[in-house]
């Protein structure tokens, strides 16, 4: 009887261990599946992040090119403005010279006209 009781205890213990193993194995497989799902999600997020960073890098490059273009345009417009201002100053100077010459000619003409009137009297 002792032997049978010991054997029965061992069989019961074995069955209990077997059942616990099944539970642990089931839990392990569940955790393994959850880990695989989590790893896939991490990989997807990494890819999304890489794409987002690449997109932002392209945007930065585009903006840097636009800034360069705008700086060149601004420099060209500055040069054009300086040229136009110089042309305006030159025209103003020519206008003053022309007005002075006209005044001198008018004065000369007025004197000639006065002399002519005196001669005719």
TrEMBL record:
Task: Cite the residue spans of the region called Disordered.
Answer: 73-121
GO cellular component terms, A-Z: cytoskeleton
**Compositional bias segments (type: Basic and acidic residues):** 88-114
Its Gene Ontology molecular function terms? Answer: structural constituent of cytoskeleton
- State what protein this is by name: Myosin-9-like
Native species of this protein? Trifolium medium
